[in-house]
Amino acid sequence: QVQLVESGGGLVRPGGSLRLSCAASGFTFRRLIMSWYRQAPGKERELVASISGDGDSLWYADSVKGRFTISRDNAKNTVYLQMNSLKFEDTAVYYCKAYNIPMSKSYWGQGTQVTVSS
After folding, report:
1. Which residue in 7, 56, 94, 111 has its CB near the most CB atoms, within 10 A?
2. How far is 25 from 40, CA to CA, in rounded Å?
3. What would the pLDDT profile of 15-40 be if each residue is shown by its tens digit?
């Protein structure tokens, strides 16, 4: 059973930065595709960024390209989301997701709140 624990959320002013972390346990981390999603109040959960097991393949939503960077440290079983130039519309609960390809199973973290406010 994969367990995911997010951290790093908080309150930040527009233009500021935050780094989210998601620590995984319970599975061989490098075999997991890791993603960050977010859900704003009244909106559907949306995919923000994904990274392959070896870190070579990355994907970003258009809304965050050039501002957010996803990365992973397989030695620490952790995936990160560096968020720069934050905007009001980035306010949401951010969730970490792990996808186990061989088992076709997804696992979710509990979420961490990011609030961009002046």
Report:
1. 94
2. 27
3. 999 999 999 998 889 999 999 999 99
Contact criterion met (CB below 8 Å) for 81 and 36: yes
In this prediction, residue 98 carries a pLDDT of 96
Instruction: Identify which of 118, 62, 59, 58 has the alpha carbon closest to the alpha carbon of residue 91.
Output: 118
DSSP string of 8-51, one letter each residue: --EEE-TT--EEEEEEEESS-GGGEEEEEEEE-TTS--EEEEEE
* The residue type at 61: A
Residue 4's identity, in one-letter code, is L
Of 9-18, 26-35, 52-61, 74-83, minimum mean pLDDT range: 26-35
